[in-house]
User: Fold this.
Amino acid sequence: MSQAVETGQMPLAPEAGMTLWRRQIQAILALELRKNLLGRRALPMYFLAFMPVAVMLIRAVLPVFGADLDFANMGKQSEFYSTLIFQGFILRFVVFFGCVAIFTNLFRGEVVDHSLHYYLLAPVRREVLAAGKYLSGVVSTVVIFTGMTIVSYALLYAPAPGAIGSYFLGGPGLGHLVAYVGITILACLGYGAVFMLLGLIFRNPVIPAAFILGWEMINSFLPSLLKKISVIHYLHSLAPVPVNMGPFALVGEPTSPWIAVPGLLLVCGALLAASALLVRNMEIRYGND
Amino acid sequence: MDWKPEQLIEFQNVSKFYGEVLGINRVSLAIPPGITSLVGPNGSGKTTMMNLMTGLLTPTRGTLTLLGLDHRRPEEFFRKVGYCTQFDSFPRGLTGYQFIRGYLEVHGFGRSGAESLAREAVARVGLTDAMDRRIAGYSKGMRQRIKLGQAIAHRPAVMILDEPLNGLDPMARAEMIDLFKQLAAEGMHVVISSHILHEVDLISDRVIILNQGYVVAEGDIRGVRTEIESHPMQVLVRCDQPAALASRIFEQDHVVEVKMHDDRQGLLVSTRDADRFYLLLNRIVLERGLTIEAVAPADEDVRAVYEYLVGTEGEGT
Assistant:
């Protein structure tokens, strides 16, 4: 079996430091993106991403059947998109559950598949592994969900193509789209950090994820201090079109984008540090999982 | 031979508990280069020991170093270690070649370095023709070999193999054993756990026998056998005058039993002092002019030692 093998000079890997860590993160990304975007894990994400596009597609063909929802009134249509589609459906449902599917499985999925040890037996710092896996989740969700946001927003103009010039290019539309994409990216970062940590703490992260979903859902009705312990609160603050949360919502002082964005990133950093600590002390005992 | 710490795998009073359940307890030993086999019944602590050696588990008590290195310095530690686990699982969707190359890149090798090492590894385990097929389509034996290929791809100094012969056909087993011997001949530590005791005998320079989380014996098999005083040593002697030999040796107080072989051309002698027996045999041969065809220890193998120390419970094939 092995007699005929010529062993050449041993290729060298860099010593510990930034070059090694960069290479290792690239390698982890390559392996993980394949799983996240092409593997079994990707199916719920694609299904979720298709849903708002499907809703917007149905809305786009409504005029064919004679329905008139005041499509030419872009101010009204923009509010509809912001409140119902983006805030109500994309952020609270699609991105939320998409992040649950991807990030809770970054480690938990490999424990269930009994394949995490291949990473833990490589000369890679556990912190670098956690960062690489998180990054792979962020890239995967950002690619899918920002793509979905752009397509669904573009479909807003399908029933009123004239608004592309007047509202999208000549008005606030393009700025709104940039804001939606930015909020989607922040949502992936924020929910990603939360769910990666949950996946490391809980054997079955579905129940804590359901709790967080409930917490995010009632966020508008919480007192101002409690509102701040959530991801959705900071994302709401960045909405380009004010969101009407209904008559029972408790209106508090909106958080400035200059606080919301760094605050969210800081929380992500803290959650990632906690995840890295758990990964650092992780033991492989598949039999117990 | 005196070994330096950077040549040894050292356990110093290592214990591992899973909550209330004992994994291994108070293990202190030093494993030098060569092939070392871990044998013991299911649940004796073999996999726990291997997982501790490779940093997949952390000791509850005690310290463990591998070639003087600690797994908390992964960049150095895991360049020296290859571990072929018993888990028959792989990342989904990869070919054999992609699997090995992908994890070599995680090691930090550049693309060309990872490619050449991956090709070398698949060749070493005899899977070059199948390397571009998905692992999901591999047979059990091929999966076992690709795991081994992944574990040796980065040319580690210590190779740890948990039941590496499981699922292999006899030809593949023989090839694998040759590979282990070759790796050991290159100066590598090869630590193997196996249920297949006669193959352990063929492979090993030394054994570690575990039972219920404790090391019950360790060392080269002959030394371990000699230390088992509760069971007399058995020596098989093939000669032309077995009856004459039997009458002469039965006079000795250290000889406890002599059995005539079925073909009446040999004796199975049980003695409490093998060294004295061999000296006596030399004397008898000279005095009586016996023609000796063969003299061989009959229970100086892993199977016998295992039965004496552990019993037959949990023994494999």
Observations:
- The mean pLDDT of chain A is 88.
- Chain A touches chain B through 48 residues (CB under 8 Å).
- The radius of gyration of chain A is 22 Å.
